[in-house]
């Protein structure tokens, strides 16, 4: 059975501000990792992290933009592996819903199949939550990013 990472967080900021952190490579580097991302359908890009041999991970996430609806939806493939040509395939989906007093952000990361994926699933589940909370702190430094997750 496939496991799914899902986190929802409220930002007391307009969707345009949250969107910038999801799509601007300079801002993405502050809360996630270095990337050559562009919010263009079909754009192929990478995220670069430290290799993690314990997870059979070479440090490069190979991605492709699958959907872009400015200020509302963003999806991309998220493939990773040992660098030998074998990749674990998954997808990241972001949905922004603007409210009267801010933006609800929903993150869904799918594609973790098989028991061998449990360690990386657990690490990425915690990592994603910590990272989206970083966006909250970056957008709202005056209140140390306090909001509901």
Please give a structural write-up.
With 149 residues, the protein is of the alpha+beta class. The chain contains three helices and six strands. Strands 1-6-5-4-3-2 form a six-stranded antiparallel beta sheet, covered by helices on one side. A hairpin with a 2-residue loop joins strand 5 and strand 6. The chain is globular and about 45 Å long. The model has no long low-confidence stretch (mean pLDDT 91).
What does the secondary structure layout of this molecule look like, with pairings?
Elements: E1 3-11, H1 15-23, H2 25-31, E2 44-48, E3 60-69, E4 73-77, E5 91-99, E6 102-112, H3 118-139
Antiparallel strand pairs: 1-6, 2-3, 3-4, 4-5, 5-6
Shape: globular
Strand order of the largest sheet: 1-6-5-4-3-2
Let me know the average pLDDT.
Answer: 91
Helix segment count?
Answer: 3
CATH superfamily: START domain
Features:
single chain; 149 residues; alpha+beta; Alpha-D-Glucose-1,6-Bisphosphate, Chain A, domain 4; 6-stranded antiparallel beta sheet; 3 helices; globular
Give a short synopsis of this structure:
By secondary structure, this protein is α+β, with helices and mostly antiparallel strands.
């Amino acid at each position: 059975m496939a496991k799914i990472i899902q986190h929802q967080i409220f930002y007391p900021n307009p969707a345009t501000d949250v969107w910038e952190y999801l799509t601007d490579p300079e801002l993405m580097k502050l809360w996630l990792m270095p990337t050559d991302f562009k919010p263009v359908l079909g754009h192929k890009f990478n995220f670069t992290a430290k290799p993690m041999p314990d997870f059979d991970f070479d440090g490069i996430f190979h991605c492709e933009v699958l959907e872009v609806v400015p200020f509302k939806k963003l999806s991309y493939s998220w493939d990773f592996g040992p660098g030998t040509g074998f990749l674990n395939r998954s997808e990241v989906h972001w949905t922004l819903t603007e409210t009267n007093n801010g933006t609800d952000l929903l993150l869904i990361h799918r594609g973790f199949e098989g028991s061998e994926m449990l360690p990386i699933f657990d690490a990425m589940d915690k990592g994603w939550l910590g990272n989206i909370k970083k966006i909250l702190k970056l957008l709202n430094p005056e209140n140390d990013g306090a909001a509901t997750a």
